Amino acid sequence: MEHFLSMKNISEHEILRLIKEADAIKENGVSPIHKQLFAGNLFFEPSTRTKMSFTIAQRKLGIDPLDFAGETSSLQKGESIYDTAKTFEAIGASMLVIRHNQENIANQIAAHVSIPVINAGDGKGEHPTQCLLDLLTIYQEFNKFTGLKIAIAGDIKHSRVARSNALALQTLGAEVYLTSPPDWQDNQLDYPYITIDEAVETCDIVMLLRIQHERHEGGVAYGKQHYLSAYGLTKAREQRMKRHAIILHPAPVNRGVEIADELVECSRSRIFKQMENGVYARMAVMKRLLTDRGIIDENHFNQRE
Ligand code: CP
């Protein structure tokens, strides 16, 4: 693996290898790298989970995170994102983690730097490390993907999480369904649409999506109460879910909108477990990139903490 930009061209074998790697790191830990390496964390869009879990994952691996704040950087003097990335490479970063509101920006930068690039969310494009932590959470629960029925529910049109997950889950043999208000459907995603009521009654996993307020030009068309009762996970719907079914949400959660407030921490919810898994999923991705690129010897990691 040269970069980690998308779930599009990753084989079933490679995805499963990353999931199992993340699971093993969570279980056994990993020996930190004894070589000075820096990671440039270039977040041009707000983030709590992704940015902080990359920082923790890097520290656990023995990598020094280089924090970056656009508002105090030379972006303010007109420097481009491309030149910012090239600067991090020039001063010694061994990898770049990029979040930006522009689709494909990480791919464009990856084509012009010699270090690995990780897409930490690009506009409505993809969010592959979120996808990997979602897959790890599903794997820990069900130990398989084939035959699982998964509904991805909500703001499909503006969601990079929906795109990455639908692609990867299909590759892994799961049955993917989408559910959303009619005007938030995305016809470029070729999966069957069902209602939220069908989703809760038939699926093993209900993956709710945050309403992406920042990507709705002219504001969100639905009131909070109306959205929850028409398209969200209410307490009444949760009670109709299959006995073993679980709830996922990438967070941040709009409590009382996509999901009833009291369900965020209910026994079916794996929302905070997803966040915990984010650290290990990101460690697995960075470990693989460093070893595949020959920056760190694979044998180094065989020794446990
Ligand atoms: N799920 C996710 O990407 O959260 P942040 O925006 O807080 O990183």
From TrEMBL:
<feature type="binding site">
    <location>
        <position position="77"/>
    </location>
    <ligand>
        <name>L-aspartate</name>
    </ligand>
</feature>
<feature type="binding site">
    <location>
        <position position="127"/>
    </location>
    <ligand>
        <name>carbamoyl phosphate</name>
    </ligand>
</feature>
<feature type="binding site">
    <location>
        <position position="49"/>
    </location>
    <ligand>
        <name>carbamoyl phosphate</name>
    </ligand>
</feature>
<keyword id="KW-0665">Pyrimidine biosynthesis</keyword>
<feature type="binding site">
    <location>
        <position position="50"/>
    </location>
    <ligand>
        <name>carbamoyl phosphate</name>
    </ligand>
</feature>
<dbReference type="InterPro" id="IPR002082">
    <property type="entry name" value="Asp_carbamoyltransf"/>
</dbReference>
<feature type="binding site">
    <location>
        <position position="99"/>
    </location>
    <ligand>
        <name>carbamoyl phosphate</name>
    </ligand>
</feature>
<comment type="pathway">
    <text>Pyrimidine metabolism; UMP biosynthesis via de novo pathway; (S)-dihydroorotate from bicarbonate: step 2/3.</text>
</comment>
<dbReference type="GO" id="GO:0005829">
    <property type="term" value="C:cytosol"/>
</dbReference>
<feature type="binding site">
    <location>
        <position position="160"/>
    </location>
    <ligand>
        <name>L-aspartate</name>
    </ligand>
</feature>
<comment type="function">
    <text>Catalyzes the condensation of carbamoyl phosphate and aspartate to form carbamoyl aspartate and inorganic phosphate, the committed step in the de novo pyrimidine nucleotide biosynthesis pathway.</text>
</comment>
<feature type="binding site">
    <location>
        <position position="210"/>
    </location>
    <ligand>
        <name>L-aspartate</name>
    </ligand>
</feature>
<dbReference type="Pfam" id="PF02729">
    <property type="entry name" value="OTCace_N"/>
</dbReference>
<dbReference type="InterPro" id="IPR036901">
    <property type="entry name" value="Asp/Orn_carbamoylTrfase_sf"/>
</dbReference>
<comment type="similarity">
    <text>Belongs to the aspartate/ornithine carbamoyltransferase superfamily. ATCase family.</text>
</comment>
<feature type="domain" description="Aspartate/ornithine carbamoyltransferase carbamoyl-P binding">
    <location>
        <begin position="3"/>
        <end position="140"/>
    </location>
</feature>
<protein>
    <recommendedName>
        <fullName>Aspartate carbamoyltransferase</fullName>
        <ecNumber>2.1.3.2</ecNumber>
    </recommendedName>
</protein>
<dbReference type="GO" id="GO:0006207">
    <property type="term" value="P:'de novo' pyrimidine nucleobase biosynthetic process"/>
</dbReference>
<feature type="binding site">
    <location>
        <position position="252"/>
    </location>
    <ligand>
        <name>carbamoyl phosphate</name>
    </ligand>
</feature>
<dbReference type="GO" id="GO:0004070">
    <property type="term" value="F:aspartate carbamoyltransferase activity"/>
</dbReference>
<feature type="binding site">
    <location>
        <position position="130"/>
    </location>
    <ligand>
        <name>carbamoyl phosphate</name>
    </ligand>
</feature>
<dbReference type="GO" id="GO:0006520">
    <property type="term" value="P:amino acid metabolic process"/>
</dbReference>
<dbReference type="InterPro" id="IPR006130">
    <property type="entry name" value="Asp/Orn_carbamoylTrfase"/>
</dbReference>
<dbReference type="Pfam" id="PF00185">
    <property type="entry name" value="OTCace"/>
</dbReference>
<comment type="subunit">
    <text>Heterododecamer (2C3:3R2) of six catalytic PyrB chains organized as two trimers (C3), and six regulatory PyrI chains organized as three dimers (R2).</text>
</comment>
<feature type="domain" description="Aspartate/ornithine carbamoyltransferase Asp/Orn-binding">
    <location>
        <begin position="147"/>
        <end position="287"/>
    </location>
</feature>
<keyword id="KW-0808">Transferase</keyword>
<dbReference type="InterPro" id="IPR006132">
    <property type="entry name" value="Asp/Orn_carbamoyltranf_P-bd"/>
</dbReference>
<dbReference type="InterPro" id="IPR006131">
    <property type="entry name" value="Asp_carbamoyltransf_Asp/Orn-bd"/>
</dbReference>
<dbReference type="GO" id="GO:0044205">
    <property type="term" value="P:'de novo' UMP biosynthetic process"/>
</dbReference>
<dbReference type="GO" id="GO:0016597">
    <property type="term" value="F:amino acid binding"/>
</dbReference>
<feature type="binding site">
    <location>
        <position position="251"/>
    </location>
    <ligand>
        <name>carbamoyl phosphate</name>
    </ligand>
</feature>
